[in-house]
Amino acid sequence: MSKRTMGILSECIPMFTMLQDENRQQILVLLFDHKQMTVNEITEKLELSRPAVSHHLKLLLDAGLLSVKKNGKERIYSLDLQKAMAQLKELLLSIEADINA
């Protein structure tokens, strides 16, 4: 595997780390289905405490998988997968180039 591919793979590690947790997977699915939700709305759908949901949302936000906007006191979360999809496409293209080299 080329150094370029290894570099791209390293850049993807935070995303893969976020995706390995089942609770974060459930949050991502909820946001995919509902487009945008508040912490309270997500908490109502999961068997997690509000602080736990907030923690997972912060991790997903820090990993660049979500975006957030404020509406008064509420924070409304939505998926923001453009960067993640671009990274994955770049990784796949680099692996393909390595295979065909």
Shape: elongated
Strand line-up in the sheet with most strands: 1-3-2
**Helical segment tally?**
5
Distance between the termini: 10 Å
Q: For the CA atoms, what is the radius of gyration?
A: 16 Å
What percent strand? 5-15%
| Parts with pLDDT < 50 across at least 5 consecutive residues | none
Q: Count all strands and give the number.
A: 3
Q: Helicity level, as a percent range?
A: 55-70%
* Largest sheet descriptor: 3 strands, antiparallel
Mean pLDDT: 95
Q: Give the structural class.
A: alpha+beta
Order of helices and strands: HHEHHEEH
Summarize the structure.
Helix content is 68%, strand content 15%. By secondary structure, the chain is of the alpha+beta class.
Outline the secondary-structure elements:
Elements: H1 3-19, H2 22-34, E1 36-38, H3 39-45, H4 50-62, E2 66-71, E3 74-79, H5 82-100
Antiparallel strand pairs: 1-3, 2-3
Describe this protein's structure:
- By secondary structure, the protein is an alpha+beta fold.
- The chain is built from 5 helices and 3 strands.
- The protein has a 3-stranded antiparallel sheet.
- Strand 2 and strand 3 form a beta hairpin.
- The mean pLDDT is 95.
